[in-house]
Specification:
mainly beta; two-stranded antiparallel ribbon; 1 helix; 4% helix
Length: 93
């Protein structure tokens, strides 16, 4: 069984017309979520996410594509200060 099937969906991607296109889980305890101009989804996680059991929440930040696949994660754990503002820093986008 794939890990993503163990977690309930908590994100939905909509088409420009408003039709749901994908539904998936982007982790646990998410105080901030933003999208970039290419459709990438960026999430920051709180303590319950970082120290919980979801495989993508542990790094503190994650980048996702519109199909629900994690496409970016930090190398190792990020600093302990609040990371919510980092989700908006998507390299000039």
């Amino acid at each position: 069984m794939e890990t993503e099937n163990l977690w309930r969906s908590n994100a939905v991607v909509f088409s420009p017309s408003g039709t749901p296109e994908a539904e998936f889980c982007v982790g646990d305890d998410i105080p901030a979520l933003v999208t970039d101009i290419h459709g990438g989804i960026w999430t920051a996680y709180g303590d319950e996410g970082i120290y919980g059991g979801h495989p993508e929440s542990g790094g503190g930040l994650a980048g996702w594509n519109t199909k629900g696949r994690a496409v970016w994660a930090p190398e190792g754990r990020l600093p302990g200060h609040p990371l919510e503002g980092c989700t908006a820093a998507t390299e000039n986008e």
